[in-house]
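Box S1 | Example of a co-folding query
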Amino acid sequence: MDRVAVLDWSSSGVPKLGKDSIWLGVAQNGQVQAENHATRAAAYDALHRLVADTLAAGETLLLGVDFSLGYPQGFGRALMGDDRPLALWGWMAAQITDSPNNAHNLRMVAAQANAAFAGDGPFWGNGAKADIPGLPRKKPQLIAGLAEFRATEIAAQKAGLRPKSCWQLAGAGTVGAQAMVGLHWLEKLRHAFAGQVAVWPFEQATAPIVIVEVYPALLDQDVAAALAHNPSLVRDALQVQMLAQALQGLAKAGQLAPLFAQPHPMAPVEGWIFGLGHHIALRAALPAGVLPPRLRDDCFAMPQGVNWVPVDQALARLRGALHPVTGTETCPIARAHGRVLAQDCFARRPNPPMPNAAVDGYGFAHAATGAGPQRLPLVAGRAAAGQPYPGVVPLGAAVRILTGAILPAGVDTVVLEEDTALDGAAVVFDGPVKPGANTRKAGEDVPAAAPVLPMGARLRAPDLALLSAVGIAQVPVYRRLRVGVLSTGDEIISSPNQPALPHQIYDANRPMLLALAESWGYQPVDLGHAPDQPQVIAQRLNQGAAEADVIFTSGGASAGDEDHVSALLRASGTLSSWRIALKPGRPLVLAMWQGVPVMGLPGNPVAALVCALIFGRPALSLLAGAGWTQPQGFWVPAAFHKAKKPGRREYLRARLNADGAAEVFQSEGSGRISGLSWADGLVELPDAAIDIGPGTMVRFMPYAGFGI
Ligand code: AMP
Ligand code: MG
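Box S1 (continued) | Returned holo structure for magnesium ion
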């Protein structure tokens, strides 16, 4: 199929644009677009043009529509004595009027159809104010001897979807009404291009134009992810575009044929949702690398008049302001350590793939054994991992089997080698043994096609073992977040390689922050050091905006005279200086520079580290697609005294002593870099006042829990 179009239909009685109106997504030549049509007549014109264009170009088109193309078996025969589904299209075309301003008579036609049946149905549901004789408002008891759902809808329900019955004409997502004002347009299209259009699965999909029924919710998870990237997109537009792209992806890869295989005996009678049961393939066919939108410039704004923000409130605001900013790519498992999954992953193979032996021993059929001493003659050869036993083990015989070997035909139970003795050419052991003893069932660990890891998971070494075991060679991941790090201050010297004058100090923050970014799995981007000169800082920030997805600065973040970072960001109009009730820490500066978020950390290395761990880490994680992170912490007895005042949350440099109690660094001075290195983590003291003495329980957050 050269082109794929996906139509999201509407039964609106008035012209309508935007949400819940008609959307047409068209994918061709790797491009995709969505059109919005106010009326069905306008949408028909667009379809007509698309088909004419396709045929003129000598190309083919797959047209997916999101309403049912058929009805439960028996409807056509009872209505007009004809079982052929396309005969129903003709009936609809003869009955339905659908004017250029979207006014239609579908409920009258439904009532008329109901008249052909005893009882109240099958059609029901009336969105209009006026009552229509013959159209019940509520679902009738018995749907006139017809099934409520088609076979495909029952299959869809089993797959976790929630299709509505085609008899239901009112309520949210009612496909029934859409089909009634849709089939007659498709019938018209079919006749306009007679001989060139096939309707699957009623006809062979061999014509240049093939119409199928689709269910855009198959890709809901991916649509939701894309919407999370950009909440301003219209869901309907995204749905039709993504489904068109996925179908075109399959077509390009030559993988559409399985979707056209007859899915069910009822399909040629009732129709079938195209792609049902193939949603993993469809999702895998979605193109990677769609670039998410940038953050809004005012995303960090604090409400007027907010003075001191408690830590938890600041974290909540930060969480609300950010979303993933990197695109996606495909990455082989061997290089995927630390990367963040951009889609849910499903097993391509069960684990274990086949039933196998859990121990070294002897395998046999349980049915031939009983209580008391058992003596089973051994067959020649053995079953080992990677060396399957080729024959069948006869009932009453046993085979030597090693851990991991596939159970040979005729074997369902294994006895542990240590529990046996060999007697010439036979194995001897005490019965009874449990059926299936010492074996592993196929898929007992991971069933076929089971979800294994969710979108947003950061891949650790054990995750790679799992992915590999279930046959996943490459994964869709977010592109690695690039984290720019800039130090500022006239007193700072870039590198200990350079001589320092007495008033100068070496840059402690930059190596620390670059290393943090790296240990969190991101790509560190060294933006160097800038003196307190606005034009130099501006130039480095420009470089950062070009080379990084987010920038950490340190120093110059308060309101003092020399604090050029704040001054500069304020001048660019997007600065928010958050006065967070936190010690150590000064205002946390949050800003956007050319569309890139900037986090201005304090200059003091202790405060810089605490702010980077408490605010920077979860923020980067969200930007990277891995979601918000909560640092790990646990309660331990204190091994120190402190009378903490109310009003600010405090983080103390701490480590556990031999008794598992937290001791803290002797000085709380935020210039004491040695204490950072002395510590193994932080003790978090609550916002409220607290008197701490030895044995008071305090929350210890190990560095390891911050991923360092
Ligand atoms: P500032 O935030 O610029 O007012 O700096 C606060 C304190 O942190 C000052 O004593 C600075 O000298 C110190 N400082 C700033 N940046 C760094 C750095 N990169 N490495 C070590 N100390 C720094
Ligand atoms: Mg400074």
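DSSP finds 19 helices and 35 strands in the chain. The mean pLDDT is 91.
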